[in-house]
Amino acid sequence: MMTTNPFPAISAARLPDVLRGMPKAELHMHIEGSLEPELIFQLAQRNGVSIPYASVEDLRRAYAFTDLQSFLDIYYAGASVLLQEQDFYDMAWAYFERAAADQVSRAELFFDPQTHTARGVSMDTVITGLHRACADAEQKLGISAALILCFLRHLSEEDGLATLEAALPYRDQFIGVGLDSSEVGHPPEKFTRLFARCREQGLRIVAHAGEEGPPAYVWGALDLLGAERIDHGVQSVHDAALMTRLAKERVPLTVCPLSNLKLCVFPTLAQHNLGALLDAGLCATVNSDDPAYFGGYVNENYLQTFAALPALHAGHAYTLARNSFEGSFMDEAAKQREIARLDAYFAAFA
Ligand SMILES: [Zn+2]
User: InterPro entries, alphabetically (predicted)?
Assistant: First the structure.
């Protein structure tokens, strides 16, 4: 338990500025979930696509979700405006500008190719546009960026295997694979062959598990899919043996507090278990998931969560930022450089 603040000079009043300014990595962000209503309308106009909302305000009003599925319905409607390579570039670039403002120095972006290939958009269009934005983020904003291809778990394993084959010619433009979309009813065991094939390709493995689904899905993601990182994982607290394993193996959890609030995984942020995960020694991190839809980018997630959970102090802030670099897929030397920068940042406040 980290009950005493190891940075006594950083009082609760100074904490918001520290959270905003500290260097951090973002490891759980679906690029299609960063589409703001303004950009959806702009791209719809540019591409001559009609969308079932009269105005930006009308679309924003539809963002009152009751669960994961009600969100996914609007999410797929929003993605329908993405057709050209430049659309994918513009979407990713808009995110990187916000990430830079939030002091994100490493971003690992999820993308859902099946959402686009099913509409007749080619894998080449999707990956080339996103990858070009990643290269520019590094060059122009100093953000180290990488792509993680996610399979939609409500679709079949065969569909996932075909998607992987279509993506392999672009193998050097993405570092790993993940598993997202509707969790309950689509357990990890549905995708064991697909993830075995991904591991053969040397891809890094992550998977959404334990967001709405039970701890058994987290076990399955680790043992059947070979997940190195668990996306969400907040339901793990209901399984003591799982918590012990996650802490012992330092399996990173990419926690997304505002997403959990919007999708009613927790009734209020004050009831969120982020503090419990940290105090149990887990490598928990803070991320924005689908920031355009869930009411905030990564700094907003930090700020609102710390405001709602007064037990969290500067020591937790440091640990979360450090975990974000430790849990990233940067090479060891780059991680150490980022952690040294973080240490210097906190030392300056002492
Ligand atoms: Zn997610």
Answer: A_deaminase_dom, ADE, Ado/ade_deaminase, Metal_Hydrolase
Query: Is 138 among the residues known to form the active site?
Result: no
Tell me whether residue 30 is annotated as binding.
yes
Q: What's the 313 CA to ligand 1 centre distance in angstroms?
A: 26
pLDDT tier for residue 135 given thresholds of 50, 70 and 90 = very high
Please, are residues 211 and 265 in contact by the beta-carbon 8 Å criterion?
A: yes
Nearest in space to 44 (alpha carbons), one of 63, 58, 61, 65: 58
What's the 179 CA to ligand 1 centre distance in angstroms? 9
Which pLDDT tens digit goes with each residue over 157-212? 999 999 999 999 999 999 999 999 888 899 999 999 999 999 999 999 999 999 99
141 vs 100: CA distance, rounded Å: 7
Q: CA 41 from chain center: how many Å?
A: 24
Q: Which DSSP string corresponds to 16-80?
A: HHHHHHS-EEEEEEEGGGG--HHHHHHHHHHHT---S-SSHHHHHHT---SSHHHHHHHHHHHHT
Residue with tokens 């500067």: 314
Written as six digits, the tokens of 339 are: 């952690």
Domains of the chain: 24-349 (3.20.20.140)
Give me ligand 1 centre to Cα 243, in Å: 21
Q: Considering 36, 211, 300, 338, which one is annotated as catalytic?
A: 211
